[in-house]
Amino acid sequence: MTKKVVSLLILIISLSLLSAENFIIGNGSGAQSTVPVDGHYNYGWSKFFYTSSQLQTAGILNPVEITKIAFQIGGSMPLVNYLMDNQSIYIGPFPGTNYGNDYLGHPGYENKTLIYNGSISFNGPGWFFITLSTPYTINPNSGVEILWENRDGSKISNPPQFCFTNYSPYSKEVHLASNLSFPAGDGTTTSKCPNICFSTGGLEAPQVEISQSGNSFFLSWTLIPTASSYSIYVSDLPSGPWNFLTAITGNQYQLTATDPKKFYYIKAISR
Questions:
Q1: How far apart are CA 15 and CA 158, in angstroms?
Q2: Whether residue 117 is found in the same domain as residue 164
Q3: How far apart are CA 227 and CA 175, in angstroms?
Q4: CA distance 161 to 164
Q5: Where are the beta strands (DSSP E) in 33-166?
Q6: Which of 199, 227, 243 lies at the terminal end of a domain, its last residue?
Q7: CA gap 256, 26 in Å, rounded
Q8: Domain containing 264 — which CATH number?
Q9: Which domain holds residue 263?
Q10: Can you give the CATH number for the domain in which 169 is found?
C-alpha cells in the first residue's frame, strides 16, 4: 500500500465522521414562508418528502435513529423568539418521487409517527433545531414524508422564512392554510422543498488516525467518554454504500494487509 493510498484513507475517514451525526438535504439559499409552516395564517398544514436517493446522498446509508430535525431559517431580518403554539410534526415512509394531482390532500396519519407536539420558539437566521419528543428511525431504502400541522389559532406578524431547494419539475411539497379553522381539502403544490437536517443528536466524532507497523496498518481513534463501543463501516467507494464491518469497545482496529484499497469510517455509540 502506497503512501498516497494511506493519505486518501485518512481523508475519507475524516469526511465520513463529519457527516455521521448531521445529515443535510438541500443547499438552496432562496427563502419562503409557506413550508414547513406558514405563520401568516392561524391554521394550516404542509407535507413534503425526501427520496431514498436524497437520504443516501446525505449519508444515511443504514437505518439511523434521529433525535432532532432542523430547518434553515433565511430572510434578511433576524428572528428572535417567534413563538408558535400547538405545533405537531409527523414523519413516515414515502416511496414516491412526485406529488401528483391525486395526492394534494392531507395525507392522514396512517404509518406516521408523531415526533413533536407543542410550542416552538423560532430563532434565526441559520439552522434551527427541534428536539423530537419521540426519536424516529429512518430507513434509507425508503424515502420519508413529513407532515407539519399548525393549530396555533393566533398568528403573529413577520413569521419565519425557510431556505429551500427547487426540484423542478417535481412537485415536492403541498400546503394549505386558513385563518378561520384547520383547513380541509386539496392544497397547493410547488417544487420548493425546505432544506433539512436530520440529526442523531449523538456523540462527538472520534478523531481518527492511520498508522503502519511493518506490513500492518492500524486505524486508531480518540476515546469518547460517554461511548460504549465503536462501529466500523467499510466501502469500496468513498460515496458508499457502507457495510457494517464490526463493533469493538477499544480504540484500535488492524486492517488486513492483503485487502485491496478500502474506505472506512468510525462511529461512536452511546452507552
A1: 38
A2: yes
A3: 41
A4: 9
A5: 43-50, 64-73, 79-94, 113-124, 126-138, 143-150, 162-166
A6: 199
A7: 38
A8: 2.60.40.10
A9: 3-19+202-270
A10: 2.60.120
Q: Where are the beta strands (DSSP E) in 3-63?
A: 22-25, 30-32, 43-50
Residue 10, all three cell numbers: 485518512
**Could you tell me whether strands 227-235 and 243-248 are parallel, antiparallel, or unpaired per DSSP bridges?**
antiparallel
Give the SS3 label for residue 55: helix
Are the C-beta atoms of 218 and 259 separated by less than 8 Å? no
Distance CA 20, CA 64 (A): 10
Cα 209 from Cα 11, distance rounded (Å): 10
In eight-state DSSP terms, residue 67 is: E
pLDDT at residue 20, rounded to an integer:
40
What single-letter DSSP state applies at residue 186?
-
AA identity, residue 63: P
Query: pLDDT (tens digit, 9 = 90+) per residue, 98-129?
Result: 999 989 999 999 999 999 999 999 998 888 98
Task: State the average pLDDT for the chain.
Answer: 86
pTM of the predicted model as reported, rounded to 2 decimal places: 0.70
* pLDDT of 7: 36
Domain shared by 131 and 42, yes or no: yes
| Domain boundary, last residue among 141, 168, 199 | 199
Residues found in the chain = 271
Grid cell at residue 171: 412537485
